[in-house]
Amino acid sequence: MNIPNQITISRILLIPIFMAVMLIDFGWGNIAFLGAEMGVNQFLGALIFLFASLTDWVDGYYARKYNLVTTFGKFLDPLADKLLVSAAFIILVEMNLAPSWIVILIISREFAVTGLRLVLAGEGEVVAAGWLGKIKTTAQIIAIATLLLHNPIFAWVDFRFDVAMLYIALIFTLWSGWDYFYVNRRALMASK
């Protein structure tokens, strides 16, 4: 297994650690960060989430630079992203930091696109992430991080940047999902 795929697997392995830090009360107290108050566990969880998210960029860069792009990596990388983002969004719902209807729409899109990829893979086609998918992922990461960190910086000026980013992430999530199905409609219809 090549290094980019190992990095992708490490992202998947960070998910249960992220979840444990976020959901188990270790009694670590609170912390103030850039105008926002939160539990130390939330701060550490946000750092783990951001580190895991950064590995997405690292494995992709490394795979392209050293020509290590594989079919397995093209499948596993977006799956790892979806698992990490889904776990984070579900935790945000549990913490009452994100509305469940938004999270349901986002996770539903992720399942739908994964299903599309599986159908197309059965037809011998591998669908790599497009530019809308990359914007969607970036918007989701920013939304999750700012929600986990209780709207840092913007808390000083009482502007809900975290909530605004959540809605922007929702828009790009739905748009990119529609785009995946639209661009691949012929291949999808041919697979009946």
Task: Describe the SSE topology.
Elements: H1 3-23, E1 30-33, E2 36-39, H2 40-65, H3 71-94, H4 100-122, H5 131-148, H6 161-183, H7 185-190
Antiparallel strand pairs: 1-2
Outline:
The chain is mainly alpha-helical and 192 residues long. It contains seven helices and two strands, in the order H-E-E-H-H-H-H-H-H.
Give a structural overview.
By secondary structure, this protein is mainly alpha-helical. Helix content is 73%, strand content 4%. It has one domain: Four Helix Bundle (Hemerythrin (Met), subunit A). The chain is built from 7 helices and 2 strands; from the N terminus they run H-E-E-H-H-H-H-H-H. It has a two-stranded antiparallel ribbon with strand order 1-2. Helix 1 runs parallel beside helix 3 (71-94). The radius of gyration is 17 Å and the shape is globular. 33% of the residues are buried.
- Total domain count: 1
Distance from N terminus to C terminus (CA atoms, Å) equals: 34 Å
Tell me the overall shape. globular
pLDDT < 50 stretches:
none
How much beta, percentage-wise? under 5%
Features:
192 residues, membrane, Four Helix Bundle (Hemerythrin (Met), subunit A), lipid metabolism, globular, transmembrane, CDP-alcohol_PTase-I, two-stranded antiparallel ribbon, phospholipid biosynthesis
